Amino acid sequence: MSEVRLTQLSHGGGCGCKIAPSMLQQILADAGDRMPFPDLLVGTETSDDAAVYRLNDHQAIIATTDFFMPIVDDPFDFGRIAATNALSDVYAMGGTPIMALAIVGMPINRLPVETIRSILQGGESVCKSASIPLAGGHSIDSQEPIYGLVALGIVHPERLKKNSDAKDNDLLILGKGLGVGILAAALKKGDLSDEGYAELIENTTRLNSVGAQLSGIAGVHAMTDVTGFGLLGHLLEVCRGSGLGAEIRFDQVPVLPSALPLAKAGYGPGAIERNIASYGNDVYFSSDLESWQQRLLADAQTSGGLLVSVSRESVDEVLSAFHRERFADAAVIGTMRAGTAGVAVKS
Q1: Spans of the chain, pLDDT less than 50
Q2: Is the CB of residue 106 less than 8 Å from the CB of residue 145?
Q3: Do 269 and 13 meet the contact criterion of CB atoms below 8 Å apart?
Q4: Which of 115, 178, 180, 220 is most exposed, with the fewest beta carbons within 10 Å of its own?
Q5: 41 in helix, strand or coil?
């Protein structure tokens, strides 16, 4: 039992386990609020990162949940990645986490108790870094290992940042480099270098806590985080919610160094093809973009970076906030434009 690899116990890993965007739209097509709730500031209407409910004029509660199957074999690292990813949704709304609950599903007859304990300890370490209690949770015996959190946060209603408030002529800033899914795919095949693994862990366990700071910048109009639907999928959600188009340049998009040669060699999770198929005609690639470049933009990220739509006057302030918090890769990648909701990608 002690030699079982976590990634071999699951059919997918990390946010690549998500249901495809197009299928999710079909599933939720008839969903919606059946009653008016004036204090529900964010629900399901724009596929935002979390639900938000106003408590009073000064406080709103953020509620979200995120869990998935292993993206790495080290149990402590798996716990850290899953917890960091779950808390990111709170930061993406401009909030501050206040508490978390654990979601645990484990094949108890196939994993040693010590391995399961290590996964939970990884999640606890991240909650400690975020200065919040891991106050309980729920566990089941499942065929595949699953771990994640219910995360609760707080935000002032006037500082709430949704994914649907981008403005025409805003610039787009991405906080972390792409390539997590590609690195994870190479790891599962035994082809990832030590340097690549270090990049994978550093990127996926870095809390997006800068989001709470960005919420105080008036020029920040919209935020989301980039996860299982890839950069293009989550940018499409911003476009659709805001009623705008977007244009990005591939050569400005940050990419994790070890992921670049692997992307060119064809590595990547199956979720890439699923994501591209889901975009349909809402994404236009310029003719000079190679297939590996298109696939990289659709790579399923786990615990990816914040995507920020910001006025041009506030760009330097936002980049400075990212860089102060050690997000060295943060960069301007494109522009929001008036027009049909969709994304144009240039080289």
Answers
A1: 1-2
A2: yes
A3: yes
A4: 115
A5: strand
Supply φ then ψ for residue 276, to 5 degrees. -60, -40
**Between the CA of residue 294 and those of 277, 298, 299, 344, what are the distances in Å?**
12, 7, 9, 11
CB 150 within 8 A of CB 100: yes
Q: Map tokens 């236009």 to a residue.
A: 284
For residues 45 and 218, what is the distance between their CA atoms, to the nearest angstrom?
Answer: 24
337: burial class by Cβ within 10 Å (0-12, 13-18, 19+)?
Answer: middle
pLDDT in tens, 199-244: 999 999 999 999 999 999 999 999 999 999 999 999 999 999 999 9
CB distance 294 to 276 below 8 Å: yes
Residues in the chain: 347
Alpha-carbon dihedral sign for residues 222, 227, 230, 231? positive
> What pLDDT does residue 1 have?
40
Bridge partners of 249, per DSSP, are 346
CA-to-CA distance for 236 and 282, rounded, in angstroms? 8
Q: What is the pTM of this model?
A: 0.93
Residues 4-24 as b or e (16 or more Cβ within 10 Å = b) = eebbebbebbbbbbbebbeee
CA angle 78, 140, 82 (to 5 degrees): 20
Catalytic residues: 15
Rounded CA separation 304/301 (Å): 5
Which residues, at least 6 apart from 271, have a Cβ–Cβ distance to it below 8 Å? 12, 16, 18, 20, 181, 228, 230, 299, 300
pLDDT digits 0-9 by tens, 81-131: 999 999 999 999 999 999 999 999 999 999 999 999 999 999 999 999 999
Encode burial over 182-191: b for 16+ CB neighbours within 10 A, e otherwise. Answer: bbbbbbbeee
Task: List phi, psi (to 5°) of 123.
Answer: -65, -40
